[in-house]
TrEMBL record:
It comes from Muntiacus reevesi (Reeves' muntjac). One of its GO terms (cellular component) is cytosol. One of its GO terms (biological process) is positive regulation of release of cytochrome c from mitochondria. Its main location: cytoplasm. This is BH3-interacting domain death agonist. InterPro entries: Bcl-2-like_sf, BID. It is found in: Cytoplasm; Mitochondrion outer membrane.
């Protein structure tokens, strides 16, 4: 995903998490999520400008091939996000409300550093992984659980969505980016 004209890791992970969260239509944080989606850099889920002949406007003629590749990758990321959300529906019950409330209260402490927030996520993820069956793909399960934690925390405290989103994207990029790349690449193949 990160080679050539592809999406950057940060953008890919943001797109993945955004798509995952958007696949949760009955969540309390939908308004905040819509606002966040419009604030993210790049073309994440935004339509390109269309010319009157129906063609996409491109500032650079040679950008058409790169644009098509990027669009394919974005669609693959959205597909992966939807698939993970469907799998997540089955695992969601394994996340205790007390854990979610505790994490949300930690995230609401403004003096807590970004690193401390990531450590809170890592500790919660480690607890959740101990309860998962050993036959599940380790990295994919971690990715799914970290995104479920983000969803549950945002549902518990919608006002914290930006902080939760940023910390989760950073956590994924630091710990699970290979898994993200592989899932997207497999979807594109």
């Amino acid at each position: 995903v990160s080679n050539g004209t592809g999406l950057g890791d940060e953008r890919t992970t943001s797109l993945l998490l955004l798509g995952f969260l958007q696949s949760c239509p009955h969540s309390c944080f939908q308004r905040e999520l819509e606002t966040l989606g419009h604030e993210l850099p790049g073309r994440l889920f935004h339509d390109d400008e269309l010319q009157t002949d129906g063609n996409r406007y491109s500032h650079f003629p040679s950008a058409a091939a790169a644009e098509t590749d990027s669009e394919r990758q974005e669609e693959a990321v959205r597909d992966v996000a939807r698939q993970l959300a469907q799998i997540g529906d089955r695992l969601e019950g394994s996340i205790r409300p007390g854990m979610v409330a505790g994490l949300a209260s930690r995230f609401s402490i403004r003096s807590l550093s970004e690193e401390d927030r990531r450590q809170c996520l890592a500790a919660a993820l480690e607890q959740l992984m101990q309860a998962c069956p050993a036959d599940m793909d380790h990295e994919k399960t971690q990715l799914l659980l970290i995104m479920l934690l983000a969803k549950k925390m945002a549902d518990h405290s919608p006002a914290l969505l930006r902080d939760i989103f940023r910390t989760t994207v950073t956590f994924i990029n630091q710990n699970l980016i290979t898994c993200v790349r592989n899932l997207v690449q497999n979807e594109m193949d």
